[in-house]
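Support request, priority: normal
Reporter: lab tech (M.K.)
Component: structure prediction queue

Hi team, I submitted a job for Flagellar biosynthesis protein FlhB from Planosporangium mesophilum yesterday, and the status page still shows it as pending. I've pasted the exact input below so you can check whether something in the sequence is tripping the parser. The sequence length should be 363 residues. Please let me know if I need to resubmit or if it's stuck on your end.
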Amino acid sequence: MSGEKTEKPTEKRKREARKEGQIPRTPDLGSWGGLLIASMLLPMLVRNTMKTAEKLFFLSAAVISDPDPGKAMKVMVTGLKDGAMTVAPLALGMLAVGIAATAAQGGLRPATKLLKPNFKRLNPFSGLKKTFGPQAGWEAVKATVKTAILGIVLYLQLRVMLPGLVTAGSMPLPALLDLITDTVLTLVRTAAVAGLVMAAADYAMARRRIGKQIKMSKHEVKQEHKQQEGDPLLKGAIRSRQMAMSRQRMMSDLVKADVVLVNPTHVAVALRYDPSRGAPRVVAKGAGAVAARIRQVATDKRIPMVQDVPLARALYKACDLGAEVPPELYNAVARVLAFVMTLKARGSAAGVHRSPELTSARS
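Reply from support: The job had stalled in the queue. We restarted it manually and it finished. Here are the results:
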């Protein structure tokens, strides 16, 4: 059936879908990626925080021993600056991950149609349908599966680490704290990696779902192609109108012609010679009905017509409308123009003329 969605979406349909917000996305990609980056930058953040706190402690002690508003303000500025520099790597890392995750899932272009006010989104029944509909059920299933997989991964990781933690009771406190920190960070990183794998699978499923939603029927593809290329009937009408206007302009220029070469009935080519513009130019040409119209206008306007079959055919094939006569035909055209000037001098230029001299010269 023509209404069945069986065709891949066109680029135009994909662009429209992006504007409407139909883009395969999963928020888990940015969340788990951010968590992984945070787990890698957190040890550095803790070390820098301890150094900054120690520095501020000594500076504050110096201010307490020698109270001075200027020194206190300087300590506060130093603390804010060092604190910002300490947090900056983590903040920038999280920002970079968020931007990269968004760019990887369809780019950073906003869904412009979603920015327009739409009161249908305020419909409570639509909200209930989303909350209790098939999509909501599918999201609940996904959340359950993700939680189960994450729990299994963490359980398996803990089983490997637990024997080392049990025997760590006799270790010095700093070494024990380092062990606990490494264990926690390893668990966080393991969870983040597992979450990224699940996010990639979720994105693949979302991409497949959106791909099905924006599929097109054969009729829609044909209609879009017709819109892009234009309706053939309309294009034909426009082309016919353009040709008619071109013929009208040609007939208006025909009255300025010096001579019309005929074949004698199938082809007609009108020439005008203006020494200031170079070689003679073709001001009108045509075959069949157009040639008949040119001969009729030439008769009405008393433009001389010369029957020269080879020259008329050669000019019709070689010259476009408005073009100059090619050099290889200069001599033949010059003889025709000289013949016409002779006829005008005798006062009998109008009508159709046969020139035996031209025929013999061209033979």
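The mean pLDDT is 78. The two ends are 68 Å apart (CA to CA). Let us know if anything else looks off. Ticket resolved.
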